[in-house]
Write the structure tokens for this entry.
Amino acid sequence: MIFWYEPHPAMLDSAKLSDVDDLAEIHAASFHRGWSPAEIEALLVQDRVITVVLRRSSPFGTRSPIGFVMVRATADEAEVLTLAVNPRHRGKGHARRLMDEAIRRLYHDRVKALFLEVDEGNVPALTLYGRLGFLQVGRRGQYYAAPGAKASAALVMRADLT
């Protein structure tokens, strides 16, 4: 019999104010225009913003964030504000775990629909969102612009949570 053992597994947790620097670093590594610690803190303190963090334990007992998702709920709808995973930890299903937990919390709060915007060229994200049941409901042309690159469209996607 073979047992899989991960010495320092990743665990889901709610974000804390002490995480803002780590979250800003992950966000900056994930997007052309990363959010500052102050911007992340301003969202963390909002009542209707859910922030789920994935932490990786170390042999020293620390639990550093390796990814996070922020979702804002209003009435029976919500929107994904951001989803980011440290580049060194991508491709391991962490974004899926974060989204599954965010959706579970929204479902518990009786949210009926979840929206997001994603760069039309972000194939890994589009694959993830498709597997989660998101469907394209809109398109915003030339929405994402990076210096020296052609602007790309944002796809507006929706998933029904009922």
User: Anything to note?
Assistant: DSSP finds four helices and seven strands in the chain. The radius of gyration is 16 Å. The helical segments are 20-30, 37-44, 94-108, 123-131.
